Amino acid sequence: MQIYSELEAVLLCDDVAEKCTRAHALQAACVKTETLNRAVATPPLDCRYAGRPSKPILVPPSAVKNRKMTTQEGYAALLHAVCHIEFNAINLALDAAYRFRRLPESFTRDWIRVAAEEAKHFGLMRARVQSLGFDYGDFPAHNHLWDMAYKTAFDPLLRMALVPRVLEARGLDVTPPMRAKVAQRGDEATCAVLDVIYREEVGHVRVGNHWYQYLCAARNLDPMTVFRRLLQRYDLFIFRGHVNMDAREQAGFSAFELAMLADFEQQRSSQI
What we know:
Structural class: mainly alpha
Number of strands: 0
Radius of gyration: 18 Å
Strand content: under 5%
Order of helices and strands: HHHHHHHHHH
Number of helices: 10
Shape: globular
């Protein structure tokens, strides 16, 4: 098994069910393989070629309508948004394993495992959307998460800094409040799915933190100084509303780093 050819095939797959099945199969094959064949036959494709279905229709983030959870359709739209995040997360994890080929084999293995777990999350949440009489693709969605793949495709340090440590870490903040709202509806099945996602996403952010620290050390860079500069350069926010400090610490953010980020965000907010 030539791992990059396999990764490319799964990444390009535009059928959501098949992509998930193949992501699980690739992870299972990696577990059984002592040493991956990482011979490089062709360079990685441009990020624009990542496979996705024709639906959902992609619109700007500002065009995604807020729907009330009190209606069946509004509640389904909320779960659909989570479903879409998980689908993009599959492609992001596959792309990291596929694109950044000069890192240790453990990097490739880590992100293949993450891709398989994201595929599991997508399948679980899609089933909850289907239980409400809808399916993935029935509501418009935005592509903000995948857009960051374009911006970070040329450097794994950028990818690790800005995707797991910023965009995915934000999920650690928003999932508990969302779960509380879901629990108020009495939807215990969806609560159980959110529990699985939350628990494993802590691990995914931890993987991103590990490789970010690794890359900074390899380049003799101070990780906190670099992170602060990247946030300023890309104009990314860190905290809005509830901040899950415990989960971020579990995911590898130090207490000092969290204090620095909170101070940075406070300064940025005061300038707006």
